[in-house]
Automatic annotation (TrEMBL):
Alphabetical UniProt keywords: ATP-binding, Chromosome, Coiled coil, Nucleotide-binding, Nucleus
Family: Belongs to the SMC family. SMC5 subfamily.
Species for this entry: Burhinus bistriatus
Name this protein carries in UniProt: Structural maintenance of chromosomes protein 5
GO biological process per UniProt: double-strand break repair via homologous recombination
Keyword Phosphoprotein: no
Length: 756
């Protein structure tokens, strides 16, 4: 592990786990961190070997329970020089000081009855009864118990010595033999005890000696087998070499036979290949001849098509001559008719009357009409400019309303992310509002709009999170129907506003009286909300009577609590709740830090939104009025344009009536000239037809010659194709034979390569 923190309970007595999970890491850390020596663990003789590989330093930190305060012992182990630095409660200390602190807590990591590493289990099992008793006394008894036990044994030895001495003094009058017997008995008893201890020690060592001799036998056997191994390996490899050598000689013989069998096939393939190439050359020659003959045939066919086109062009030219002559005759007839009509009109036309008064009247009316049109164009321009200004203002208002709607969308997304069931119920409510008898308000976090987003934290810390996402109903019946919600089983909150409105409730005192304490407003004045929501908050949370203060309020909070007798107080960053004990009449206050706002930090200014919507309605009405005025002006403009066109048409007719006679005389003269030219351009169709027949006869003679040549070329091409088909059949047969031989050759080649 790079970093590992272990928090054992007060009764830790065993660490268990699968291999590699870190049991030894914890045990080693306990031992080394409590001034234990590496030998106590039985794994390594240097502390640097306990640090993770690749690291230059390791740290063990142990916190020990102690009255009146815990102590923290830290050991930093340096890998380079196997040194340790000790700290007690983060302050440098010596090893001796650490050992004194540990001894004071009766911690003995060198005592197997108190601290037993996995590698010391065997040593623990070998302890004698006397050693187990002494280790147990050190482990669980008070510090003086083992000391008393040692003193008790010393006293027992001294007692025995004193008993011997007293017995010697009492029997001085007896003979020396009796003294000698007593001394010998005591010495014999001591020797017997020593002998028993040595026998027990020999029994413990006997198993170690047996394991040592068994290990020695295994090592001798391994040494003997290591000496035999090269000879066995050599014999195996030599036998393999002989087998492979024999297989190689057999493969050489098989390869030679395969090469001899493949030689005739190779020669036959070469002969087939040469014959196939000669046939292919002949086929290509015939194909070239066929191509040349086909090209000549195509040229003859193209020449025949060209002759047909020439004949068609002659027929087309003749038809065009006929059409041209018919057109000339039709034009002559029409010209005669037009001249006759114009002469009749001249004969019936009366003398030209005086048209000037009518022309002047039309000109005057046109002048007045143009002045009126100019005025209308000016009015249209002004109204259009005003309409564009109103539309720009409307676009600005729509953009701002869109921004406000985006804020509402953000609040809805926040609701969806935190309370998905509530959001699902909101969607259902919007689709089914017609099912409710009275007004239903959406969750409070959507309905409440802060006047200043910085004050959102006061409202959110005052109103519970459950109520922030609750729907507000004016009718208990509507709320019960909503909670059923078509059995959707969504987990949502709903509250009912009080029957008697509390939205306009007055505070217990005016806010001006609290200004000297740093209060600037009551909670109700910090936000806007629909009437049912505000009524519920005033009734349930008394937002109309909870003041909000500043840092000034915090600095004089004790005075505020004593003088104002307020039950709930908000300062810049804290909330205070004041209670009076019913038994002692003492004033108790608790304060908590304000949480950051989560739901109301993005609020919509409802006043601004209402003003924008009213402005939008006014602009729509103005645009509608402007549109009606423009429509009237456009209709008047169209009427004037129609009248203008009528007057101009009248003026044109008056002018044309004065010029008509001169125009008719001029037109009749022009038509007589045109008629004369048409009569001179007559076409001789009989002569043109004879010339066309001569040309067609000459072309048909040329076509007959070309057809004869084409028939000869086609016969030649057919004979060449027959020869080519015969060669192709031969080539196909040879190719099949060649493929068969190559397939056999390929199969033999595979065997040959495998043999090689």
């Amino acid at each position: 592990y790079d970093v590992c923190e272990v928090r054992p309970g007060p009764n830790l007595n065993m660490i268990v786990g699968a291999n590699g999970t870190g049991k030894s890491s914890i045990v080693c850390a306990i031992c080394l961190g409590l001034a234990g020596k590496p030998s106590f663990i039985g794994r390594a003789d240097k502390v640097g070997l306990f640090v993770k590989q690749g690291c230059l330093k390791g740290v063990v930190e142990i916190e020990l329970s102690k009255t009146p305060g815990n102590i923290i012992i830290t050991r930093e182990i340096q890998v380079v020089n196997n040194t340790s630095a000790w700290f007690i409660n983060r302050k440098p200390a010596t090893l001796k000081t650490v050992e004194e602190q540990i001894a004071a807590l009766n911690i003995q990591v060198d005592n197997l009855c108190q601290f037993l590493p996995q590698d010391k289990v065997g040593e623990f099992a070998k302890l004698s009864k006397i050693e187990l008793l002494e280790a147990t006394e050190k482990s669980i008894g008070p510090p003086e118990m083992y000391q008393f036990h040692c003193e008790l044994k010393n006293f027992r030895e001294k007692e025995r010595e004193l008993e011997v001495n007293m017995h010697i003094i009492e029997t001085q009058s007896s003979d020396c033999r009796e003294i000698s017997v007593i001394i010998c008995n005591n010495l014999c008893r001591d020797k017997t005890n020593s002998l028993e201890k040595m026998r027990q020690r020999i029994e413990r060592y006997k198993q170690d000696v047996e394991r040592y001799h068994e290990r020695k036998r295994h090592l001798d056997l391994i040494e003997m087998l290591e000496r035999k191994r090269p000879w066995v390996e050599y014999e195996n490899v030599r036998q393999q070499h002989e087998d492979v050598k024999q297989s190689r000689d057999q493969a050489k013989e098989e390869l030679k036979n395969l090469k001899e069998l493949q030689s005739p096939v190779t020669k036959k393939i070469q002969e087939t290949e040469e014959y196939f190439k000669s046939l292919d050359m002949k086929i290509r020659d015939k194909a070239t001849e066929i191509k040349d003959t086909s090209q000549k045939c195509k040229q003859k066919q193209d020449a025949l098509e060209m002759k047909d086109k020439q004949i068609e062009e002659i027929h087309q030219a003749l038809r065009m001559k006929k059409d041209e002559e018919m057109d000339r005759q039709r034009k002559i007839h029409n010209t005669h008719k037009m001249i006759e009509d114009w002469k009749n009109e001249l004969n019936t036309m009366a003398a030209c009357e005086n048209l000037q008064p009518q022309t002047d009247a039309v000109n005057n009316e046109l002048k007045k009409l143009q002045e009126e049109r100019a005025n209308i164009d000016s009015d249209i321009s002004d109204l259009t400019a005003e309409k564009m200004n109103q539309e720009r203002e409307k676009k600005r208002i729509i953009d701002r309303l869109g921004q406000l709607n985006n804020i509402m969308n953000m609040k809805e997304e926040n609701l969806k992310g935190r309370f998905r069931d509530t959001h699902s119920a909101l969607i259902w409510l919007r689709k089914n509002k017609d099912k409710f008898k009275k007004k239903v308000c959406e969750p409070m976090m959507l309905e409440i709009n802060m006047k200043d987003n910085r004050h959102a934290k006061y409202v959110e810390n005052h109103v519970s999170a459950n109520d922030m996402r609750a729907f507000v109903f004016e009718s208990q019946e509507d709320m019960e129907m909503f909670l059923m919600r078509d059995h959707q089983k969504l987990r949502v909150n709903a509250v009912c506003a009080p029957a008697e409105s509390c939205a306009e409730s007055l505070p217990s005192r005016p806010i001006e009286e609290l200004h000297r304490y740093g209060f600037f407003s009551y909670l109700r004045e910090l936000f806007d909300a629909p009437h049912p929501v505000m009524s519920y908050l005033c009734s349930q949370y008394r937002v109309h009577d909870v003041p909000v203060g500043t840092e000034k309020t915090r600095n004089m909070i004790e005075r505020v609590i004593q003088e104002t007798k307020l039950r709930q107080i908000y300062t810049a960053e804290e909330k205070y709740i004041v209670k009076v004990s019913a038994y002692t009449n003492l004033t108790l206050s608790t304060n908590t830090s304000l949480r950051a706002a989560q739901f109301l930090s993005s609020s919509v200014d409802t006043d601004e939104r209402g003003q924008l919507e009213n402005q939008q309605q006014d602009i729509n009405n103005t645009l509608k009025s402007l549109e009606m005025r423009l429509t009237t002006l456009f209709e008047r403009q169209k009427h004037l344009e129609r009248r203008d066109n009528e007057l101009r048409q009248q003026k044109k007719e008056l002018l044309e009536r004065g010029n008509r006679r001169r125009q008719l005389e001029s037109k009749i003269g022009v038509k007589y000239d045109s008629l004369k030219q048409l009569e001179q351009d007559a076409i001789n169709l009989e002569k043109e037809s004879q010339q066309a027949n001569v040309k067609i006869k000459e072309i048909n003679t040329q076509k007959a010659k070309l057809v004869t040549e084409l028939m000869h070329l086609i016969k030649n091409c057919i004979s060449l194709n027959i020869l080519k088909a015969d060669l192709v059949l031969q080539s196909t047969t040879v190719a099949a034979e060649k493929n068969r031989l190559e397939s056999e050759y390929k199969a033999a080649s595979v065997q040959l390569r495998a043999a090689e």
